[in-house]
Amino acid sequence: MTTGFAICFLVLAAVALAAAAKMIFSHHPVHSALYLVLNLCASALIYVLLGAPFIAIVQVAVYAGAIMVLFLFIIMYLNLGLAQDVADARSRRATALATAGLLAVLLLAGGVVRWSGDLAGRPQQVAAGQQALAAGQAGLPGAPAATPDAQAALQAARAAAQPQPGQAVTVEQIGVALFSRYALPFEVASLLILVAMIGALVIARPQLQRESALRKEVSS
Amino acid sequence: MDFRPPDMNLWAALPTAVVGATALVTLLLSVLRPAGAARRSISFTLFGLALAAVGCLPAAIFRPGPSFQGMLVLDPAAVLLSLLLLGATAVCVLLASRYLVHDGVDAAEAAVLLTLGCAGMLFMVSAGNLLMVFIGLETMSVALYILAGLAGARDRTSHEAALKYLLLGAFATGFLVYGMAFVYGATGSLDLREIGARIAGGGAAPGFLAVGLALLLIGLGFKVALVPFHMWAPDVYEGAPTTVAAYMAVGVKVAAFMALLRVFNVAAGGAAASWQAAVAWLAVLTMLVGNLVALAQTSLKRLLAYSSIAHAGYLAVGLAAGGAAGAQAVLFYSVAYGFMTLGAFVVLLALERADDKPQLDDLRGLRRRHPLLAAALATFMFALAGIPPLSGFLGKWLLISAAVQAGQVPLAVAAVLCSAIAAFYYLRIVVYSYMREPADDASPVTLAAETRQALAACLIGTLLCSFPFGLWLLSAAGWAAGALR
Amino acid sequence: MAKGGTQTARAERDWTLVVVWIGIAAVVLLVVGVVLGRLSGAVPHLQAWWQAGPSLTGLVEHLLVNWVGAWNWPASLAWLRPHAGWVAPVTAVLAWVVLIFLFMLPMVTYQIYALRKVVGFMQARVGPTQVGPWGLLQTPADVLKLLTKEDVIPRHADRIVFTIAPFLVLVPASMAYLVIPFGNQQVVDGKVVYSLIGGDLNVGLLYLSAISSVAVIGIIAAGWASNNKYSLLGGMRSAAQLITYEIPLTLAVVPSILWVGSLNLNTIAQYQDHLGNWLVWPCFPGLILFAISALSELGHVPFDLPEAESELVSGYNVEYSGMKFAMFFLAEFSNAFILSALGVTLFLGGWQSPFPESVPLLGWDHGIFAVGWFFLKTLSCVFFLFWLRATLPRLRIDQLMSLGWKILIPVGLLNVLLVAVLRVVLG
Q1: Which of B69, B326, C132, C360 is the most buried (most CB within 10 A)?
Q2: Do B145 and A199 touch (CB under 8 A)?
């Protein structure tokens, strides 16, 4: 990890976090939505740093460009004003804070354990870890016994095996993966989208029928 | 870039493919030939579901291993639950053709949504990869979000139920995906067998794995309504059309429990220490709260909702017990639970009037008003309560013995105590229908042909799961549990 | 300053807006260009350029003519040389940003002049004649006027969003120049000698579609923040139209990608090395689709509903004045250029000459000649847009929507299928 990478990452992470916080604490839904756009763009740039330009661009195009536009569209269409039920929100704040705190503790705990595990990883254990990784990949039952050292070594090995920042995952690689290893989920996802589409039509149809009836009335 | 074509074992995908194709053809037919589409789409859907059930047979015989790069595992357990889900869907389609259509819903739309939801469930029960769990869950859930709101034109609570289900479902999905990300971080794979191998080989970061499993448990716990995550269930069941509520109570729970079984018992079985206690506590809490709150209900639909929450608790006992015995208990209980709950909902539907939701008082003197219906209701209630020799008893016995075998005696004791509490409100229903005089204005109950068929199917199913026929299912479940990996 | 009126006026220093705009675009371009450029292999030639010596004249030379000789490093900068891996792309992109802004303003200014002249000619008028010879200074004068005009923010507007919105539109518009291949890339012995493309991104086309989809946010934000029903309606219409036509636009681009097998615009341009290889032949329906969708994306006649004067006064930008108004205008005309350039690159051979190499002068397409061909083609496309603008009537909003969803999208999908089959059949 170079200094340039670290600086870029820290700046982008700070922007993303600040935008997320502003998104939550903004009183106006439009401002919240715009901060969310900023947050999405900043995290897209983090993906770029991590060597996933395709995901980054898809994130911007789909989330910032399509979903958030629809969000803004609806917020503006309904002309939502400032949050009216502040008092109501206050009574729920305790519950929300407790839930968020719990989640934060849960996530941080995982991170801390992982981090301290990494600290324990020493270079000479990398070889053992790689063996374990290979055994794990092959799905063999005869993998080495689970000792803390082996785990740490395995993590180190995995860190070495992961793509380094600066190595881009190309669009071709993603395409090949989608049509070979992930062919089934890719196809089933189309079923999911179809359900959502049918659902949208089913929900909107009474309205459409009313409108077409109205149109007939006007024309006759 | 070298491209290796995917391993397409079509036998494994046959049932799901048939179900998906049925939905698409029904949809196209109803658009292209709108005249008489309602009847045709119902019968075509039923035919397609039957065909899919037949399509499970090659898988049961040839036993294809993990297919599509391990994405789809149509093992005996998956076949067993697929058959149950196909049956439940068929019953719901049958009911929808009568009751949802009565609510002003297009029959073809209802059939297509139910079928697509069924496809999602089938993907869930045969998922070999967390990705498939996710996509199957979403396909099922999106179909159900819409189905829950279908009666909105007549009943505004239906819209409310749909919205509530959607918001909480989306929230739960967030947990689920976050959990998958953590599990991936811990093990470097989304493939369930590979995750199992990494954990067994000591190759999983324990902290990450525990967090990931906790989040997965929360996400799937929402779907099956385990207790701290059950808030939505009574409102949604009550607001949704009863046909859809039945589908949720049976389909979602069975499919999500199979996913839980695959993720926790099978893949993360090596890391049981990190989740077993949590699942056991959730099970106890769920059984207690579900049964205690059910005691106070007078609305039959809410009562069944809390009853289904309590049953999620029983199923979680099997999950917490772990091992092949636990898996066998979960598989058996899923099937038994499916038939008896579906049956209870069918009776509820038969009692439903256009204007209000059936209350406990509406059951008064059911024996006189429709003896057959009263007998069926009594059977389902006895089964739900776990009275021997019915299916519920066999299931609970399996669950409790699995817990005892696993050394979790307190859990087993809790399950027994909670069943005792539950017996009170199940038997109260029977008492109302047999021992109370009917109200003066009580109308006689008439059963539509579709209701009769559905009722018969559920009754036969329940009896087949009961002693002595149930022993076959028991050994089949044992065999399937042994083949789980 | 109508104090009691519905609006309060606030004079702002418009030049600060220009500086802020350049700043934002520079920062975003820096991160995207540098990091993506690093990832997609643009680094070597940038490094070569940097190590030869980072001067603007050097860059211009490097961009426009064949690279000659090395430049001596001054001793004061020598310490940077080891860091060329990071410093080179940063400076290169910065230089590119400066070039873009040096290029964009005059280009848009004279595009407007050309529009007024062309439309005037077609409508039997003469267009601007008074300021400068043939009215040539008319549009620069207009620009100066806009820059010095009072900047009005309506009293009930959402000040922050109102101010940000023009940037949200203009910054993406200027970011698009990063990936447009203005000319060829000279490679000798595997080393890039000069390159006439700012960031040679492997995901160039996707980058463009992502950028253009973000600009929609600026437009609806502008419409909403003005707190005026006409601008809100205009913003809504714009957003609906842009979302609708982005899909056929993307679908129209897919056949070219399929044919060449790359998302890299430079690769696509290089592929079309003689007239027979131009992608317009296999992807002709794509070009038509692209032209229609591009017209709509630009809000040009016959798709100029967002600013239908008779219905909406002027659309999402009614309340804007001064430099902010100019920014929307700048973005619109800059987009016209970008989309024309994209169409040229994807279908009409990019910077390649239609004549064989052996034809003297006309057959050359290297360095300045490549740039010449590129501009010739692109400006012809821009002219075509003006031509349509002067010719066609406006569609109705429901016709617009059904054209987009019911005709263009299915046609686009069919076209993709057709080209895919053709590609497989022809190998």
Answers
A1: B326
A2: yes
pLDDT tier at A10, thresholds 50, 70, 90: confident
Determine the residue among A32, A70, A76 to mutate to test chain C binding: the one whose Cβ has the most chain C Cβ atoms within 10 Å: A76
Q: Which of B233-237, B369-373, B377-381, C189-193 has the least mean pLDDT?
A: C189-193
Tell me what pLDDT residue B138 has. 95
CB pairs under 8 A between A and B: 149
Residues with Cβ within 8 Å of B31's Cβ and at least 6 positions away in sequence, in order, are none
Chain A CB contacts of C171 under 8 Å are none
Q: Which domain holds residue B223?
A: 34-483
Domain ranges for chain C: 10-425
Mutate one of B114, B131, B187, B199 to test the A interface: name it (highest A CB count within 10 A).
B131
- Nearest CB among A112, A185, A196 relative to B135 is that of A185
- Residue B430, in any domain of the structure: yes
Do the Cβ atoms of A170 and C202 come within 8 Å? Answer: yes
Per the omega criterion (within 30 degrees of 0), is the bond before B388 cis?
no
Collect all residues of chain B within an 8 Å Cβ-Cβ radius of residue A146: 201-202
Is there a contact between C10 and C153 (Cβ–Cβ < 8 Å)? yes
Kindly write down the DSSP assignment for every residue of B427-450, as one continuous string.
HHHHHHHHHSPPPTTPPPP---HH
Which residue has 């989208």 as its token pair?
A193
Residue B27 domain flag: no
The percent of residues in chain A predicted with pLDDT above 90, rounded, is 10
Beta strands (DSSP E) in C229-311 are none
3-state secondary structure of C200: coil
Distances (CA, A) of B251 to A115, B146, B222, B461: 41, 15, 14, 15
Residue C410: φ, ψ to 5°: -60, -40
Q: Tell me the C-alpha distance between B330 and B260, whole Å.
A: 10
A171-214 residue pLDDT tens = 888 888 888 888 899 999 999 999 999 988 888 877 667 667 77
**Inter-axis angle of helices B470-483 and B449-465, nearest 10:** 70
Task: Find the closest chain A residue to B70 by CA distance.
Answer: A181
For residue B23, is it within any domain?
Answer: no
**Omega prior to B468 cis, within 30 of 0:** yes
pLDDT digits (tens, 9 = 90+) for A125-154: 444 444 444 444 443 333 344 445 545 554
pLDDT of C192 reads: 60
| CA atoms within 13 Å, Cβ hemisphere of C157 | 29
B partners (3+ CB pairs within 8 A) are A
Evaluate whether C263 touches C346 at the Cβ level (below 8 Å).
no
Rounded to the nearest integer, the mean pLDDT of chain C is: 76
Residue C332 parent element (H or E): helix C322-347
* C240 contact residues in A (CB cutoff 8 A): 73
C5 neighbors C156 (Cβ within 8 angstroms):
no
Q: Which of C86, C164, C217 to probe the A interface (max A CBs under 10 A)?
A: C217
Is residue B201, in this structure, part of any structural domain at all?
yes
CA of C169, closest CA in chain A: separation in Å? 12
CATH of A1-84, one of 1.20.120.660, 3.40.190.10, 3.90.1150.10, 1.20.120.1200: 1.20.120.1200
| Nearest residue in C to A75, CA atom | C224
Residue C92's pLDDT is 64
Put simply, the chain A residues between 146 and 205 with a CB less than 8 A from any chain B CB are 146-147, 150-151, 154-155, 158, 172-173, 176, 179-185, 188-189, 191-192, 194-196, 198-199, 202-203
**pLDDT average, residue stretch A54-67:** 87
Q: Do C213 and A37 touch (CB under 8 A)?
A: no
pLDDT band at B303 (very low <50, low <70, confident <90, very high): very high
Domains: count for chain B: 1
